[in-house]
Amino acid sequence: MADSLRAQLSNNIRLRIGLALIVATLGTYLTLDQSERVVKKQKEYRRLSVQLAQARQQATDTSWLVRSKEAGKALDELRTKDWTDSNHGLIQSKWNDYLQNLLLQEKAVNATVALSEALADDGAKTREDEAATVPGVSVMRAKLRFEALPRTLYSLLQIIDTNKQTMVVDSLTYNWVGTTGRAEMNLKALTRLSGQSGGQGAAGAADSATNSATNSANEASPAKGQS
Domain 81-120+132-193 carries which CATH code? Predict the structure, then answer.
């Protein structure tokens, strides 16, 4: 059979050309296929090399850790401005006394202070309160009604703005009545129970991140003598 095939090939030039074309086509296809596979592997290798380089750089880059510690310290400083005590009742009592004394000090007339009971009522929280929720921190509200001249109102706003314990004016209405003005002011403040961490975990989280990054850097960098 092999002899017959060789005889046909030697006698039929078209058969030889056709067979050569088939072999050439198969060879070209296999060559292109292998070349494409090599290109894909090279691209994959470059992609993995870039990812590895980025991972090593991120693992050894400590600048973001420094920023994290700075943010943690700033947060701890802000938490010292929260209204704190051993329970929410004492906090509200302390705030009520402060507001009453403030209105008395500034000689506001017909002044009343009404504290909100929404401190422990999760259902009364607004979307803004939910978005600003910090573990261990609650929102305390109060409504002030009083009569005062504009300069007295301005003085009250200045004191509220610069007070050691943070207070925020949520809303304010002021209507001129006769020779004076009648004001209604809604205040909001942050409270935290003594011993509970509102932001003290930030510095610890930064230290933990530092240790994690150091371990990652050690794992990403090959040991001496290894390829």
Answer: 3.30.70
